[in-house]
Specification:
The complex is a heterodimer. Chain A is an alpha/beta fold. Helices cover about 35% and strands about 20% of the residues of chain A. In chain A, a hairpin with a 7-residue loop joins strand 21 and strand 22. The N and C termini of chain A lie far apart (about 65 Å). Chain B starts with a strand and ends in a 6-residue tail after the last helix. The relative contact order of chain B is 0.12. The chains are: A alpha/beta, B alpha+beta. The interface between A and B is large, with 62 and 65 residues.
Chain lengths: ~575, ~250
């Protein structure tokens, strides 16, 4: 097996991975950097983020405001020391992107423009029309081309992390175009592999979001933290799950039930605000978890709007006018017309809540370090945690910048700590074992299970039991189902046994990642007997700080179920309180 | 919900087993509102797991699923079945080597993109503590449309010059170079000129405009190329007729 020797291997070339790579290259041009991704950088799902990135910049705002919005938005499950670091670094990172050419929208005086977002008490979301993630990703990717020390390995799928003496020392990856396995020896590894939304059938997430980075770390003994917190974005197109950004509401769009009522006022987010004059932190500018939950209740009451794709609500943007929609929400208009045949300029658009983001992920600390020496993580795959039980829109694009860079700095500190080099025998042994596992999967016959079949059953179980509202009985059933699916996964049989760009093999491996992550989600959800943020239990309807103001940690249990235990939440200045989106603060 | 049986004719090629590409027919039960990508996914899930193609976002921003659909370069996620009748022929993007089935080798584009220095080369250095560069909405507008390129490479598949002269840097890479040249914060035009004003740079373009016709983002690469030509011509005259102006 060919071995690539590098100083830092980065897994994933989306926003977090690219930011880390650039930070490493800038810190020391002599560092060897391997940027490894299963897709070309510009295909990474960062490109699909629409609304913008939060960072305090305007004189009427303050870091303290951003801190409190984030912590209350996360229902006090965020680590407050990490949030403090995050909001402090946020403006610096957004200015840095501006210096690299990001085409942020501007005020007439040439300063950067900001817009309103859900759960935020001031305007602080930097945006590039409604393609903010796209522009962040391309700015980072293009900037990375400046640095010859960043060596890219595009379309390499990592199958395992390599460990030696309790440290992470590299990884093994399949080169898609040849099918050969390559061993990467690295003194530090940064995982930036993105989320795992594809474990659900109805999601804004692209096909690549299969939790591969999370699963690799998990199997290497790093716990997955707070996996039960899965964010439903309230406004996806019912036909495809395509995201219509929260900026639709930030700009003044409103949500209606079938009677034309702005129903959020009936769920603690009123009183009704004047049309076209959105008020911070209330009504349509409430947080995503509350709005998605309100829709669920409307549906139960029979107030939803029926469509051929199921129940929906209406997102009405007509009063914004064509000019504003074209200037600030051009993608939204294009998507609505293309995939729903509805023009938001003339008609309200049917939307419904859709799986969007994993608050949970690889257990990391304020330095983006995991408990496994030499292993760091950043972006959606990591849980630091700033998002707690519910992420505020526009915090995640900033998060991948702040913690992408932080992971790079921590990796450099690790290199400088003088850890001895890993033993070649240990890495060779790990690589040989990884190769044997792939070979076994490729050659297996008589198993009878298919990738598409198991994937469908997994998605159904997640949709049915791990959605907006959950209960103990359903979650227990889902745990049983996931255990069964993981057993049957061992009997999967590939139809394609060739080497070049074998997507049958790739999808089988991705399914393995999703099954492991999905099991961590339902096992953590079953044990959390309270309702907090995006985790709502019909059988435990209240938040229970006495028992559950703590992070869930799911530890990989091999063929068996994960073990769940807990870690404390860091509280610096904000004691748990009431999340108030009634407009009373205004 | 109305259903429809769609006949797909998909190019298959596997370098390990096939001497030459061939076509394979699939009859696929589709929903009327589906895009071609949905039909391919349905094939992959229910009829033939060996079919390989790239895709991810299903919303025309990631640029993965460019392919020839009935001979036209298109994103499969934005090609609606309702716009096609009869057999739909799906092939890999023209002018690129086939890696397998609908997957092409894009090394050539990736190398060219890097060559044109598609990143900001600041006209004036600025420290982070000084905050953002000022840029008015009008200045933003001068380059904004060229930032929308998602590197889907439909323009290369449409470009007759690229088909004939593979050394041609091509529409997307030149548009992205032009994007930075037009940016009020940038001072790197001279550094980019040696690539884009070279023989295989902008002068290979014969202005058929095919690139702009197929661009899903309306980047209008043809406009970028013509603007580069005009600026390069002005450079030439200034250098030859008024050499004292040369820096």
């Amino acid at each position: 097996m060919e071995t690539v020797h590098t100083d830092v291997a980065i897994l994933g070339a989306g926003g977090a991975g690219l930011r880390a790579a650039i930070a490493l290259a800038e810190a020391d041009p002599k560092l060897r950097i391997a940027l490894i991704s299963k897709v070309y950088p510009m295909r990474s799902h960062t490109c699909a983020a629409e609304g913008g990135a939060a960072g305090v910049i305007k004189p009427d705002d303050s870091l303290e405001h951003h801190f409190h919005d984030t912590v209350a938005g996360g229902d006090w499950l965020s680590d407050q020391d990490v949030v403090e670091y995050f909001i402090r670094e946020a403006p610096r990172e957004l200015v840095q992107l501006e210096h690299w050419g990001c085409p942020w929208n501007r005020e007439p005086d040439g300063s950067v423009a900001v817009r309103s977002f859900g759960g935020m008490q001031k305007q602080r979301t930097w945006f590039a029309a409604d393609k903010s993630g796209f522009h962040i990703l391309h700015t980072l990717f293009q900037t990375s081309l400046k640095h010859p020390s960043i060596e890219r390995f595009d379309e390499f799928y990592a199958t395992e992390l390599l460990l030696d003496e309790g440290r992470c020392a590299g990884l093994v990856a399949i080169e898609m175009r040849s099918g050969r396995l390559v061993r990467f020896d690295a003194r530090a590894v940064i995982v930036a592999g993105g989320g795992a939304g594809r474990m659900f059938p109805f999601t804004t997430n692209g096909a690549v979001k299969t939790g591969d980075g999370m699963a690799l770390a998990y199997r290497a003994g790093v716990p997955l933290k707070d996996m039960e917190f899965v964010q439903y974005h309230p406004t996806g197109l019912p036909s495809t799950g395509t995201l219509l950004t929260e900026a639709c509401r930030g700009e003044g769009g409103v949500l209606l039930n079938k009677n034309g009522r702005r129903f959020l006022q009936d769920y603690g987010m009123g009183p009704e605000t004047p049309l076209g004059k959105p008020v911070f932190k209330t009504m349509e500018l409430g947080p995503r978890d509350r709005i998605s939950q309100a829709f669920w209740h409307e549906q139960k009451k029979g107030n939803a709007v029926p469509t051929q794709w199921g129940d929906a609500m209406l997102l009405d943007m007509r009063h914004l006018g064509e000019k504003k929609i074209d200037e600030r929400l051009p993608l939204v208009r294009d998507m609505s017309i293309s995939y729903m045949s509805v023009d938001p300029v003339t008609d309200p658009v049917p939307v419904r809540p859709v799986v969007h983001y994993m608050m949970g992920g690889i257990h990391t600390d304020i330095r983006a370090a995991t408990p496994l020496p030499g292993l760091y993580a950043a972006g959606e795959c990591a849980c630091g945690s700033i998002n707690g039980a519910n992420r505020l829109g526009s915090n995640s694009l900033t998060e991948l910048l702040v913690f992408g860079r932080r992971a790079a700095l921590s990796a450099i500190e690790h290199l400088q700590s003088g850890a001895p080099p890993a033993s070649d025998a240990a890495l060779a042994g790990g690589a040989a074992a990884a190769q044997a596992r792939i070979r076994e999967l490729m050659q297996r016959s008589g198993g009878g299970e298919t990738v598409a079949g198991l994937r469908k059953e997994m998605m159904q179980a997640m949709e049915q039991h791990a959605g907006i509202y959950r209960n103990g009985e359903g979650l227990a059933e889902a745990c049983g189902k996931l255990a069964d699916l993981r057993r049957r996964y061992a009997r999967i049989e590939l139809h394609d046994r060739t080497n070049v760009y074998n997507t049958d093999l790739l999808q089988a491996l991705e399914l393995g990642s999703m099954l492991d992550c999905a099991e961590a989600v339902v096992a953590s959800a079953l044990e959390r007997r309270e309702s907090r943020g995006a985790h709502q239990r019909l059988d435990f309807a209240a938040r229970d700080d006495a028992k559950f103001l703590k992070h869930s940690l799911a530890w990989y249990g091999g063929a068996g179920a994960p073990r769940i235990d807990y870690a404390p939440v860091s509280i610096t200045s904000s004691q748990p309180g009431v999340r108030d989106y009634s407009g009373a603060h205004a | 919900m109305s259903e429809r049986r769609v006949e797909l004719e998909v190019l298959r090629y596997h370098p390990e087993t096939d001497a030459a590409p061939r076509f394979q027919r699939y009859s696929v039960d589709c929903r009327e509102e589906w895009v071609v990508l949905d039909a391919l996914n349905h094939v992959k899930e229910t009829l033939d797991p060996t079919l390989s193609y790239r895709w991810s976002c299903h919303m025309a921003v990631c640029g993965s699923c460019g392919m020839m659909i009935n001979g036209e370069p298109r994103l499969a996620c934005k090609s609606f079945l309702r716009d096609y009748q009869g057999v739909i022929r799906v092939e890999p993007l023209a002018h690129f080597p086939i890696e397998r089935d609908l997957v092409t080798v894009i090394d050539d584009f990736m190398a060219k993109l890097k060559r044109v220095k598609p990143y900001l080369i600041p006209a004036q250095a600025r420290a982070l503590e000084q905050g953002e560069y000022r840029q008015t909405p009008a200045e933003l507008k001068r380059y904004k449309q060229f930032t929308l390129c998602m590197n889907c490479m439909l323009c290369y598949a449409a470009c007759p010059e690229y088909g004939l002269i593979p050394k041609f840097i091509g529409p997307a890479a030149i548009s992205l170079a032009h994007r930075y040249n037009q940016d009020s914060r940038d001072g790197g035009r001279a550094a980019r000129q040696e690539e884009i004003a070279a023989a295989e740079g902008v002068w290979e373009c014969s202005f058929t405009g095919a690139c702009s016709e197929v661009c899903p983002e309306h980047v209008d690469p043809a406009a970028a190329l013509q603007q580069v030509k005009i600026k390069s011509t002005v450079d030439w005259y200034l250098a030859h007729l008024m050499p004292w102006l040369k820096k």
